[in-house]
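Hi everyone,

Forwarding the result from last night's run.
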Amino acid sequence: MPRPTKCRKVCHLPGTLSFVPGESGEDEEAVILTVDEYETIRLIDREGFSQEECGEYMQVARTTVQQIYTCARKKIATAIVDGLPIRIEGGNYQLCDGRANYFRCGGCKKRRFERRE
């Protein structure tokens, strides 16, 4: 019997939950990107975290981050190459309450994002 999946910490929910290619209709079957996959892409590709730092931030092992990241990149590549819509939903995550202090962020990023908006 496999171990239960550990909940991943997410501090930033996406502002946009779906992306549709310009020449494709919304009738196409969408590629589903989970919220924790989105957070991994955001932290590594946008924020410049290493996989180890991302794992520490999301409170999971680096190997788990690597699996999530690889899966997310494959989904995004499939959507781009095949011209499919992307929907962000679901996943095993826990939204940060904004009180945590983690390295490299000067406090929880959730607080910083809320101040900007």
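The two ends are 44 Å apart (CA to CA).

Cheers,
N.
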